[in-house]
Design brief:
Chain lengths: 108, 113, 243
């Protein structure tokens, strides 16, 4: 149910996300000090080309990775055979759509 | 018959990786949705962030950070295992992954409270 | 049955895959030193219930036909001492997992061997009998890698223990993929490309989750987990180089 192509997409997106996740974890631990506010988050990210590129790529990689992961779980735990492709693409589109909206909202 | 091999550490590492991945995949749309409020309705985002100060929510956030950290370290373990042909002390890697995740999420919790 | 001396309490899973006659039978079996699980099954068949069906041939760990599930773990029963696997004086013996049961402890190995063949498991020669014999350096890295995986006896212990096979019946499984890895490294194999093609398909090596029950339980101490990782690297490298 996973072919070489899907495997490569899964592993490459994983490798891309290693630095993203580490930076994101550090940023979160830093950001929550003294509480969170919309102004604080926006002050850090708004108009920043760096954070736009960072979270933009992060969202793309996470959408690919999450969609393929859900495909595997649906096949092995739910025993879905047909509809795997549909599930994968729908999940990917949902992640990508909502993620793109979020990135635009906090960086534009 | 109970399958005894399912108590071996690498099976547990696999299940932990899968469950953390599933948890993150379910959380992600919600996370994106809330952040998406920042542009259109910043006051609603602030209301949500204020709500996120509650202790139960804090605990849930700690859980999410743990999921992310556990998936990160578990994934690094797999990448090492697959792409670096080391004669691997797999169990040490698996234990290290969980320890690393506990450390990172513990740090998060300490900062949050 | 002589009532004197120590005994074992043995539960045996009976029946066929269609499930209509599934049951567990209990037997009390005389215990001996150096007794193997196969000895126990044979005693039951010869002294307690002649209708018990099981499979064995060589009794010395070479033929790979006597594997069963013993106290929840797939084992080669002829080389598994009761003293090593017994828990609280009890032994629970069932057929291998992940394969259809013919009857009682005998499973249908066809899917296992079909996948062995499907993973490109047959040899394609690079030379005919009329060509001179090609020297193979036993120290060549490819040969060393192939040697590490060739002692497979096709007992299906790894296949029965694989949770990826359990979740994904199309997956080729550890034994077939380990065989494919030895062929990829066989300098006299003509169709390496064909092997890499089939292990890249939808039931191929990329479905493996590296749980490692295969390597942990292989009675011949082979390492299918690492062989499959080798296939993942070889197919990845080839994908980036272009075919």
């Amino acid at each position: 149910m996973l072919t070489l192509r899907l495997y490569l997409a899964q592993r490459i997106s994983a490798m891309l996300m290693v630095p993203f996740v580490i930076v994101h974890l550090i940023a979160m631990i830093y950001a929550i000090q003294g509480g969170l506010s919309a102004a604080e988050i926006l002050g850090r990210t708004q108009g920043s080309a760096f954070w736009f590129a960072f979270y933009g790529l992060f969202v793309v990689a996470a959408a690919v990775h999450g969609a393929i992961g859900l495909r595997v779980i649906a096949a092995e735990w739910l025993r879905l055979a047909r509809g795997l492709d549909l599930l994968m693409w729908a999940a990917g589109a949902l992640f990508l759509g909502l993620g793109a909206r979020a990135v635009l909202a906090v960086t534009l | 018959m109970r399958l005894a091999q399912r108590s071996q550490p690498l099976w547990l590492a696999h299940v932990l990786h899968r469950l953390s991945g599933l948890g993150l995949a379910l959380f992600l749309p919600l996370h994106f949705y809330v952040l998406g409020m920042a542009m259109s309705q910043p006051e609603r985002l602030d209301g949500f962030l204020h709500w996120s100060e509650a202790p139960m929510v804090k605990l849930a956030e700690f859980g999410l950070v743990f999921l992310l950290a556990v998936h990160l370290f578990g994934g690094l373990r797999l990448l090492v295992l697959e792409f670096l042909p080391w004669p691997a002390p797999h169990k040490t890697l698996a234990a290290g992954a969980v320890a690393g995740a506990a450390l990172v999420s513990g740090l998060f919790l300490l900062n949050a409270v | 049955m002589p009532a004197s001396g120590p005994t074992l309490s043995v539960a045996v899973h009976r029946g066929t895959s269609d499930g209509s006659t599934l049951r567990v039978d209990h037997f009390t079996v005389p215990a001996h030193d150096s007794q193997t699980v196969l000895d126990v099954v044979t005693w039951i068949q010869q002294n307690a219930d002649a209708t018990l069906t099981y499979r064995f041939a060589c009794r010395v760990g070479m033929c790979g036909s006597c594997a069963m599930t013993v106290n929840g773990v797939a084992r080669w029963t002829c080389r598994t001492h009761v003293s090593k696997v017994i828990r609280d004086g009890r032994l629970e013996i069932g057929p291998l997992r992940n394969l259809p049961v013919i009857k009682d402890l005998a499973v249908d190995m066809d899917p296992f061997f079909d996948k062995w063949a499907a993973a490109g498991g047959s040899h394609a020669p690079t030379a005919t009998r009329y060509d001179p014999v090609v020297d193979i350096d036993p120290q060549a890295p490819e040969r060393v890698a192939a040697n590490a995986g060739i002692e497979c006896i096709n007992c299906s212990v790894c296949y029965a223990s694989c949770d990826t096979v359990a979740g994904n019946p199309a997956y080729l499984g550890p034994a077939a993929l380990n065989r494919a890895w030895t062929l990829v490294n066989d300098l006299k194999h003509a169709d390496t490309k064909g092997v890499l093609d089939v292990v890249s398909g939808s039931g191929g090596c990329h479905n493996c989750h590296s749980i490692g029950s295969c390597t942990a339980l292989c009675p011949n101490e082979l390492d299918p987990l690492s062989s499959i990782a080798g296939l993942k690297r070889a197919t990845t490298r080839r994908a980036f180089r272009g075919r």
